[in-house]
Amino acid sequence: MVSGERTAATPFFEVPLFSDTGNRIEGVLANKEYSFRLPEHIRLEAGSELVVVWRSSPLLLPDVSTLTVRLNDRELSSVRLGIKKGASDAQEHGKISIPLPADMLQTGWNRVTVRCLLQTTQSPCRDVDNPASWVELETGSLVRVAYATESLFPELQRFPESLTEPALMNLAEFRRATSKDHPEPVVSLLVPSEAGEAELRSLLIAASRIGQTIYTNPKAVQVRDSATFPAESLARNGILIGLRPTLLMSELPPEVQKAVAALGEGEGMLAEIITGAPGVQHRWIVIGGADSEGLEKAAQTLGSEIALRNVPSNPWIITEAPGVSPIAERLAQPSGGSLRFESLRDSGITLRGLFRNQTARTINFPPGFQTTPGGSIDLDLTHSGALEKTSAFDVRLNDVVIGSVALTPQNAASTRQRLVIPAGITGRDPSTLSVSSYLDIGLVDCAHRNEERAWISLGGNSTINLASTSLTINDLSRLGMICLRDAFLRRAAILIPAEHSSERNDLLKTLGIHLGRQLADMPILWPQIATYAPGVPPDPARLSGRSGLILGSAFQWPLAFGKNLRLAIEGVESPSPSIMLRSEEIPVSDFDTSLSFVQLLPSPWSKGELFATIGGVDGYGGETTLNLLTDRSVSERLGGTVAAADAHGRVITYDVRFIQEVSLSEQIRFGFSSDTSPADIEDRRMDMTEAGFLTQSVNYWIAGASFVVMAGLYVLQRIMVRRRQNPKNGDEL
Q1: Which CATH architecture has domain 338-465?
Q2: What is the DSSP string of 278-298?
Q3: What global pTM score does this model have?
Q4: Domain 12-149 sits in which CATH superfamily?
Q5: Rounded-to-integer distance, Cα 388 and Cα 409, Å
Q6: pLDDT tens digit string along 674-733?
Q7: How far apart are CA 504 and CA 497, in angstroms?
Q8: Where does 348-447 have alpha helices with state H?
């Protein structure tokens, strides 16, 4: 067989180069990198290929415009772009399939680079911003990977990647999947049908760690009953969660069964087993405990990447919950003092090349914090003296512009530039300091980059002085951050009804994956769970010092608080099922079944903490609740202390802390009437905001005028009193 050929029996899978429907590359001199990851539990075989599908501007010159593809810094192929004379297409469409030698791909991370020269004129290029200079990679651009399976062996240290890697072989399918049509999950999380707080917390911790892989789609993970373990263990990878009685009823290997039976009070266990015959093997992790205390110790161990680095045995008996070392604790705190660029990965920043370039460095500014006044960036700037006056660069922190600097002859030779960091920028994981430049050296042939004449350097002596404080949440615009007040999720709590339902467990799984995605580089994730039921309030010890979410329906939320707290939105059963909107009773039948409510309120369990109730009229709210919690395009429209959304993308907000022009029920009736569109809601919000500003201004003027009048009357009254007194003997006149 010729090297690079795939036989008919060789299996393969496809890895898309990007996740959206199209990926545009713009500019006369343009390049873009695409990274993709291949699983480590397979052996790469001959016969792989890289497929690039594109369409390009019809104005590109066919004799000079080109597209070049590289893989892992090795040249693969180049093609000419542009429409030949006499062609009938209005735009050029193209596709190339490039066979890959067996040694060109590697397990783990790979990088494809696409470099383009996109010219529309023969003359020296000056129209770098010409919108006609573009090429767009289309869906179908992918790497087709030929592989063979390898025998599995326990690798608990590699969790979660060891468990979720099969998802890398189905990325395209899960991204295309709809709610009704999606591929089989690749991971199962099994919990008992009557799971308690310890089992549910274990589920949440496991899901959040799985979310740290980033590539694992929530649809690739399912939650099932632990009784299905015999069938599930032969179908896919997974995690079995349970106390000793549950595990002893499961078909586990003898050595694991023996370890479970021998667990003492307060002890937990982690074990990894391989199921199935060679070629169809699957990996399973068992999280167990003699009691709830032991199970939570095991779950916390799985939630700590640091603890998993040194697995002493399999099964692993856990007698103590892992701690947090001072070194690890630094990762959950922002960098203090002056941080020099030379201490960052890749040290200082240098950008070379004509026109647009960008690079970034990660800094330690985790979730749970925000910038305050007093922060700054001092840049040790040097740049080419050949740059034109149109050249400049800007600096951003987590996509927020810090400032821009024009590049002139006066600041070409080692100058110091200070940019003030604005207050209110929130931390991320990872937080990035990015620099974007536009470097112009005048007339130049676009076929030559002249990188030695177009460059900018921010030296290693440049410093970041980050002033920060704990994250402030004043309204629902930061709903997505309410669980991120600590980068290890130690201050995050999820309250859920104790009553079992598959919808509850699936929502918990999806929420955990979403939280993990936002904390991909954190070594520890320990969120908390508490349950509530009629007559059984949540355990205050699980909620003390924490903020988070209260899941359930509008009828269930009051059960979490008791009778001491009235909610702006809550369900009542008597005399008939109704929703109370600030004490105004509305029949349940008046509400769309896809409606989901969310309201922000202070924690009744800890001063300074916050909780948000979220759910539907008679359930958890389904996709609408998920969109409120995980879809940025929806959550960025939130504000105030109360909000509602539906399946049609309509969102209304309300603030119960202030007097409003309309009642909450009127706002909801308008927002979700059959003839109201999202644009109508936005127009009304803007009108109400402007009216509010006008009313506030008028109130300020009235208050100011009233103060002046009252002060004048007081002075006049004092003068009259003095005039009525005799200056000599004090007798009245």
Answers
A1: Sandwich (2.60)
A2: TTS-EEEEEEEESSHHHHHHH
A3: 0.88
A4: Galactose-binding domain-like (2.60.120.260)
A5: 9
A6: 666 666 555 555 455 444 545 555 555 676 777 777 777 777 777 776 666 655 544 432
A7: 8
A8: none
